[in-house]
């Protein structure tokens, strides 16, 4: 069993001698790096042992031990009783025989993404990287490759910044249902065992649920995460929701201070993504899972969502979103000072579903033409206009948004104003009310001089300004958002 004491002492030493202390007051001095402010589109990757059964979702390791679920019934029918074939028995089948880090990095770079965040450890407890903390990792088992390390090298060669996602917190309870019947999960267990600690599952958003994570578990979580930081120096650390449990709070402060201090030592800058209110506001970057804000925010934020509506990992019945819908979300999010982390779920052999490849390629082609309105752009005085309301909150991206040619979002960069039409009109006519030469516009939005309107990828557009709106005429058929670049004086 790994002795955590030396690493815990090193964590305290780094915190003591760095610019950040493990207090919210000190951590609130944090500012996100400029590169992250400018990078509006990233790639998330859910890949692990759960891609072998490829059924239900990436939560298969939990569902297969919950009696009455589709995953439970599927598992027994396909693989046999859990006492004879448990989740750990999928590991030798996770071979990743076609995994090519260079090909992955090329795909991500071509998509127009600026950063990549692989899941380093999901709730199942299997690490996708080389580790001295646990032997249950992809370097020693399954693929027998340092997946995260290979991806980091390949992506960085193409100018992509690489982060890592840790979902280890939820492992406290994720395998706990296997203790309720005869399965391969049973007591006694100790730290270092794959399924440990397999505690009863709490209400997920009960911040004071009992039994709370023990000091041993929390120290293990901290040391694992700090090892990940030291070994790979990720530019981003992403956490899932359960770190907001009250027991984690002192350890979150230690983790953030350690990470930010290490980044300062290395002469770089770091980003922590968190959900809900796990971190004190301003000490890290808020992430909204599968959702967005209804209006622009004065602070940086992020949405994470997936190409598939029903799963983050690969399954054989993934329901993929049209790339046009994802682009509309990207534009809406950027206009409100956010950025989009888009997930893909590779197959167990290391290849991507054709739909994933097509979505990323389509987004890449659009960004190759229109990226100047996205990367490096900032919000304008108003985020947009139009009749379609965007539902605010997490888990809202599954709601179909019927955008029209009146739904327009604004960004600004290098002195240009960009009006991005989310749905192209059949007749090529567009009305931008925020740029009308009327009293309300003068008072609230715009009172400048318009010089030129260009449709990116098309050319100059005919236009005239009336009291009610800027009227634009441009022949630009297509099924993706149209970007109008407006030259101002």
Short description:
The protein has about 500 residues and is of the alpha/beta class. It has helices spanning about 5-15, 25, 35-40, 60-65, 70-80, 100-110, 145-155, 170-175, 215-230, 250-265, 325-335, 355-370, 440-445; strands at about 40-45, 115-120, 160, 165, 235-240, 270-275, 285-290, 300-305, 340-345, 380-385, 410-415, 415-420, 430, 450-455, 460, 460-465, 470-475, 480-489. Strand 2 (about 115-120), helix 7 (about 145-155) and strand 3 (about 160) form a beta-alpha-beta unit.
Structural class: alpha/beta
Q: How do the strands line up in the largest sheet?
A: 1-2-4-5-6-7-8-9
Number of helices: 13
CA distance, first residue to last residue: 67 Å
- The number of E-state strands comes to 18
In angstroms, what is the radius of gyration?
24 Å
Unreliable segments (pLDDT under 50, ≥5 consecutive)?
none
Q: Percent range for helical residues?
A: 25-40%
Shape descriptor reads: globular
Strand content: 15-25%
Sheet having the most strands: 8 strands, parallel, barrel
Question: What is the overall pLDDT average?
Answer: 96
